[in-house]
Structures are given as C-alpha cells and as structure tokens.
Specification:
The protein is of the alpha/beta class and 314 residues long. Helices cover 29% and strands 17% of the residues. The structure holds NADPH dihydro-nicotinamide-adenine-dinucleotide phosphate and oxalic acid.
Length: 314
C-alpha cells in the first residue's frame, strides 16, 4: 500500500528521498507519475495539492499536510471525508519563535532607523524603552502563538493573546472571541498574527482593526507582524495605514500572492519588512519523520494526532 506525494511550489524530490529512506518498504508515488496506482494509495502527503486528486483515491485513509497550515488542503471542493492531519513539530515551532522574536526586537529596538543612520554615517541615539514598557499582542495562541508568547514574556515584554477559547498561561493575559477583540487591540503596541486562514480570519488585518490598536505606545504608532497567511491581510489597507501614520511599521512573511511580484509596492515601502514565507520552514528532515512516525503509530492502532476540525477549518 502506498503513500502519495502531492506537492506544488516545493521540490518534491527532496521529500521523496526522505520518505524512501525512512520507510523503504512502502510504495511511494507522485501525483504526476505515469501509471499511478490510485487504488493503492492509503495516505496522501500534501502541500498545495492538486484539487480533486484525493477524491480519485478510493482507499485513502488520511491526508497529511506538510505544514502547520491546512487551508491549502481544505480549499479542495472535492476533498474526501478522511482525517486531515497538520504538522505540530518542535523544529517548526522553534523556527517560528525565532522569526517572531527577531521581528519584535527589530521594531522594539528601532533597528531599521539605526540601519538608515549607519548608512549615512550618523551617530543617532533615539529614545529606547525597555521590553517591559512594550505591549505585545498575539492573535492565535495555538502551538506557534503560545511558544512565541512564552519566549517574549521571558524577555520581559507585556504579552497578551487572543484566541477562540480562553487560555491559562502563566504571565500572559488571555482574551477570547469577538467580544474581547477590541479590548485586546486597545492594549497592543506590537500585534503578531499567527492565526490559521479560515472563513473567520480572512481579511482580519484591515484598516478598521489597525485603527483600534493602542495609540499611546513607545513607538508613537503600532506595529503589525504577520506570519499567519497572506489571505488574512488587506494589503491596500496596510499601505494606507503606513502612509497616514495609523501604523508605524509592519513585518510580513506571507502575502496575498506568493511569490510576491517584484513590482509590488510592499517590497520597497520604507515601513515594510518583507520576508519570503520562510518564518518557519517545513524542513524535509524533520517533517518526513514526523509524518512517518504518525503513520507507523496509526498502523499499530493508535489514533492520529493533530487532526483538523473540518467545521472550524483548523
Ligand atoms: P493552531 O491550530 O495550533 O492554533 C491556531 C490558533 O488560532 C488557536 O489558538 C485558535 O484558538 C486561534 N484561532 C483560530 N481561529 C480563530 C478565530 N476565529 N478567533 C480567534 N482565535 C482563533 O495553529 P498553529 O499555531 O500551529 O499555526 C498557526 C498558523 O501559522 C498556521 O495555520 C499557518 O497559517 C501559519 N504558519 C505560517 C508559517 C510561515 O512560515 N509563515 C509556518 C507555519 C505556520 P483556540 O486555541 O481557542 O482554538
Ligand atoms: C505552514 C507554512 O503552514 O509553512 O507550515 O506556512
């Protein structure tokens, strides 16, 4: 019985090598293989899978996302009714926490201003507050958001989080649901988005939301950092908010269109730090092991972990 790889945008060969090495006795197929045996497919492994493909595999038992996000799988209108499993892995979490911490510190310590001063040979010494005077708010307190929150709190930032359900996390103020969103925004100087893309979160990072962030913070205006999904941000609103001073700066790792076209103004806007969707890379070494371990456990009769709830979309 086989595992089938349906990968777009990443090099499938890198993944094939790892899966073969970890599970040499299992038939490994690719969606584009000539003579693909669809009846033999038990497990799908997907990154932006071919829409409609999994519906043609009659013996499919589960689909594994190669990333933490599953929006790329759930958008398939013909998705069969099998468990969809997302990645929860310490290596991925560590990478995201590195990126988020880097961006928070970069804005907090005004590094871009200092870079510009250095380029001019200017000895600039702006006012600098300490971390305990900066309020960070994290949208999404799941596997990734929670780890970022804990590390940022350890550095000294005043950290709060917003999620669907209330959390008990030491040192963190928890806000939950639509009713508490405005209060969460009003106390936030640096907003970090680590939400999954769902019907509820699409377009959430818009001008109206930016206008509700704290206006009395140390940087004079708030900062927005998004490593969730590009579909959560309204990019015209980001430019407008930067230009009229509603926002001080943004860091974006995800975009409505990826790769971000080279003529997109977000690349060159002085208020934007743009990185090419690399905040937390799904490294084939770690993720292939994670998925193969899950398949082996499942075949021993254990339940699949990190199953997606189709109703909520994450
Ligand atoms: P989780 O599913 O573990 O956490 C999602 C969090 O979002 C939960 O706290 C959940 O609340 C909250 N949430 C979801 N919908 C809502 C809503 N409508 N209102 C309020 N809170 C909501 O996801 P992960 O932390 O593992 O990953 C988050 C996202 O990060 C991924 O879906 C992906 O899009 C993105 N990502 C980006 C990467 C990159 O390189 N840029 C790499 C990896 C992931 P509750 O806890 O109450 O359920
Ligand atoms: C993910 C991603 O969802 O890389 O893991 O974006």
């Amino acid at each position: 019985m086989s595992l089938v790889l349906s990968i777009k945008g990443w090099d499938p060969e890198a993944w094939e090598r790892r899966f073969r090495a970890l599970d040499p006795d299992r038939l490994l197929q690719g969606v584009g293989d000539a003579g693909l045996d669809r009846a033999a497919v038990e497990y799908g492994v997907a990154w932006f899978s071919k829409p409609g493909f999994f519906a043609t595999c009659p013996n499919l038992k589960a689909i594994f996302s190669l990333g933490a996000g599953v929006d790329h799988i759930l958008k398939d209108p013909a998705l069969p009714d099998v468990p969809v499993v997302r990645i929860v892995d310490p290596n991925l979490t560590m990478r995201m926490t590195e990126w988020v911490t880097l961006q928070v510190l970069l804005h907090h310590r005004q590094q871009r201003l200092l870079d510009r001063a250095q380029a001019n040979g200017e000895w600039l010494s702006p006012d600098q507050c300490s971390a305990d005077e900066m309020r960070v708010g994290i949208l999404g307190l799941g596997n990734l958001g929670r780890d970022c929150a804990e590390v940022l709190a350890r550095i000294g930032f005043k950290v709060a989080g917003w999620s669907q359900s209330k959390k008990q996390i030491a040192g963190l103020e928890s806000f939950a649901g639509a009713d508490e969103l405005d209060a969460f925004l009003a106390r936030t100087d640096i907003l970090v988005c680590l939400l999954p893309l769902t019907d509820e979160t699409r377009g959430i990072l818009n001008y109206a939301l930016f206008s509700k962030l704290a206006k009395d913070g140390p940087l004079g205006a708030p900062v927005v950092i998004n490593a969730g999904r590009g579909g959560e941000q309204v990019e015209d609103d980001i430019i407008r908010a930067l230009d009229d001073g509603t926002l001080h700066a943004v860091s974006l790792d995800v975009f409505q269109t990826e790769p971000l076209p080279s003529d997109n103004p977000l690349w060159r806007h002085p208020g934007v730090v743009a990185t090419p969707h690399l905040a937390a890379e799904s490294h084939p070494d770690y993720m292939s092991r994670n998925i193969i371990d899950q398949i082996h456990a499942f075949e021993r009769g254990e339940p699949l972990k990190n199953r997606v709830d189709r109703a909520t979309g994450y």
